[in-house]
Amino acid sequence: MSAQRVDGSSPTGSRPRVVVVGSGFAGYHAARSLARATGDTVDIVLVSPTNYFLYLPLLPEVAAGILEPRRISVSLFDALPRGVKHATGEVDELDTDARRVGWLDPEGQRHELEYDRLVLAAGSVHKVMPIPGVAEHAHGFRGVPEALYLRDHLIRQVDLAAMCEDPAERQARLTFVVCGAGYTGTEVTAQGQLFTRQLAASRGLGDDATRWVLVSRGDVLAGLDQHLARTADRVLRERGVEVRTGTTVEEATAHGVRLDDGEDVPARTLVWCVGVRPDPLIDDLGVEVQEGRVVTDRYLSVPGHPELMACGDAAAVPDPSRPGEYCAMTAQHAVRQGKLVGRNLAASFGKGHRKKYSHRDLGFVVDLGGFQAAANPLHVPITGRPAHTVARGYHLFSMPGNRARIALDWAADVLLPRQTAQLGLVRSPAVPLDTASPEVPQHHLGFPHARAFRDT
């Protein structure tokens, strides 16, 4: 494809082409915003390994058997304007000189496409520490395969414990260790503890038979509003969760974990929620990066590359509220940045005017399962049922589809017992934690896989 003219038109007279890499919060909203602003005057192609937008904040409810996975997996075809084309595949080549992107589709076929503009919204992958045994024995939590596997795994461990005659083995199967007390680790622990307690009671083991251990180098929800952090810490402890702050995992094996204080915790489950890092796809892009993230200006453009824009976890965007620092890797920033990328791209084609990125913190919500939650909408601290209502209302408002189905699942969870059948749809080898493993492609565009403890 020929170089792009200043006025946004292609020298050949054909429609300019914009390729968006990644369909997470940033990529989805970038494609949607651009399509709405430009109509059919721009050819928009979104490349991602899945054909759906995944609403990650509700993933713990999938693992806990509250929501079905399709509820939070919204079809891109249904949610995006008709003018947006979707190419399913793993991007493995970005040639900024030739303005070309290459990817492998699910059947291993190679595809290439030239572009006039490129949006990097590749998201993030698991941050795996160099800790012995973690890559082999920990279970990550970043996508639908992990959530489905973890749900089956929790049920399986309780079922096996119910039939186990060895008290030590039974207790190990009923012990669940979560490493990392950020958003994901806190909510997985909260939802998982309630789920396994119900499972244990239904199998005749008693509702206090399970043991959950939340291990974190820092405090629960460290760095967030103190109201949210204190509430989450208190609720977990009151439910019997062992919250181990100031410590971490030193080694993982198939039969348990060793903490850095020397304690051995016999367990068959280690859920790895330590954090994320930008997708390695951008490592060799030849642009300025900061801790693995593409550095942008306030307009979300990549300096020295007017045809490149970046947003979401893959981008180091200057934070206007903290001079000299970059925006945090959060869904709120990804959504806002994606929308602005779409509008600024439209401006480059003569539709509107460019704007600098700015934001105002509207507050956060943390769902702790049951009717417990913590929230600070507009910085007003609330807990309990009111916070639970606010949290669910926020999630419904943020979903691009499936709202009625999600609401029905929530109502069914209040009125009916959860289904506890093992489906066995996702096997352990299909969800490796190590994203550089030869078993799976290296680049996941925000949807990495994970490996759990073998079910022995």
Write the layout of secondary structure elements.
Layout: E1 17-21, H1 25-38, E2 43-48, E3 52-54, H2 59-63, E4 73-75, H3 76-79, E5 84-88, E6 90-95, E7 100-104, E8 110-114, E9 117-120, E10 124-126, H4 134-137, H5 144-162, H6 167-173, E11 175-179, H7 183-202, E12 211-216, H8 226-238, E13 242-245, E14 249-253, E15 256-259, E16 264-266, E17 269-272, E18 276-278, E19 289-290, E20 293-295, E21 301-302, E22 305-310, E23 315-316, H9 331-348, E24 365-367, E25 373-375, E26 382-383, H10 384-398, H11 403-415
Parallel strand pairs: 1-2, 1-9, 2-5, 9-22, 11-12, 11-17, 12-13, 20-23
Antiparallel strand pairs: 3-4, 6-7, 7-8, 10-18, 14-15, 15-16, 19-20, 21-22, 24-25, 25-26
Helix pairs in contact: 1-9, 5-6, 5-7
